[in-house]
Amino acid sequence: MKPFTYNALPARVVFGWGTSAQVKDELQRLGCSRALVLTTPQQSEAGEKIKAILGDLAVGIYSNATMHTPINVTQEALARAKELNVDCCVSVGGGSTIGLGKALALHSADGDAKIKNIVIPTTYAGSEATPIIGQTENDKDGKPLKTTQKTLKVLPEVILYDIDLTLSLPPKMTVTSGLNAIAHAVEALWAVEANPITSSLAVQGIEAIGRSIPLISKDPSSRDGRSDALFGAWACGTCLGAVGMALHHKLCHTLGGSFGMPHAETHTVILPHAVAYNAPFAEVAVATVARALGVDNAAQGLFDLAKDNGAPYSLKELGFKEEDLERAADIAAKAPYPNPAPLEKAKILQLLTNAFHGTRPE
Ligand code: NAD
């Protein structure tokens, strides 16, 4: 066994079918009594159900969570939370809603006091398991600028994984969100801080999501598929929270933050190409990914998993403009960060060009 360092994060995880019925007990366990339920506009009905379970422990619902955590939305929700004297958020939804709950924890923190967080994830993005928050604010030219920070203040106190609430995630979003999760695990396998704990979770996560995607595509209510996918989301999200990410996440952050590309879809399109880019310099990690997926070639296996299950596989179909490829490559190659393969602008541009056209990796 090679020497390693591993920082375990505190987390209470409750996983199963129908677990959201336990939200009231969890809130009381945290010593809280004034909850604000958070959702996106699309999931307000799911939020109302949680509010009903909480009964008089819920003081309100805020249903305007928005992708990339814009600061103006956070300010509006924070004002609401203060007005209602909220001590806990219950975020019901994907990374966008969980991001808002994290932002409320961060901006309300005063010494040890802060708004606590119970999260009920309904996608596979994995934000619930990380001490990371990305926030978007307009820069001085009025352009959105996304900044990310890592602080334990935003790590949710409780994760309630209720598989029932994932049954409504449309099949196409299931595939892209699942591949978003797999991306965390793939980069954890080649991370500088890779260690036996995260690597083992990464393999379990890739295996679970890899086998769940075809099952859910065929039958969105597949019990095995849905429970494996949500377990995989936790395993992969835990990897994201524990070790540093590399070229793949940097590219997706650039495409999302500077070009407004959709989060999970962009991860889906870029991942096979990022794996192909790093493959010669991360042979063991990439062979591990292939084994976990049950394929000979990891990059091709990931490409086929998306394409064969109806997900997008080119930046072009996501609306990216060909003339922006060069600028995206520039941004991604600029600030240095650890990555198995050297970061060379010409090669990154080729990677992005292949992703733009949706070329199957060789
Ligand atoms: P999302 O939360 O924006 O959800 C996408 C859409 O799907 C929303 O309209 C949502 O209401 C809907 N939806 C979610 N679950 C559903 C369900 N079960 N049934 C029906 N509709 C459902 O998308 P996402 O990909 O989960 O999250 C993306 C955001 O999360 C991005 O802003 C990203 O930066 C952030 N993120 C952060 C971290 C972190 O560690 N900080 C990790 C991953 C993602």
UniProtKB/TrEMBL annotation:
Pfam families: ADH_Fe_C (PF25137), Fe-ADH (PF00465)
Stored InterPro entries: ADH_Fe/GldA, ADH_Fe_C, Alcohol_dehydrogenase_Fe, MAR
SUPFAM superfamilies: Dehydroquinate synthase-like (SSF56796)
Residue intervals of the Fe-containing alcohol dehydrogenase-like C-terminal domain: 174-355
GO MF, one example: maleylacetate reductase activity
Residues spanning the membrane: none
Family of the protein in this entry: Belongs to the iron-containing alcohol dehydrogenase family.
Name under which the protein is recorded: Uncharacterized protein
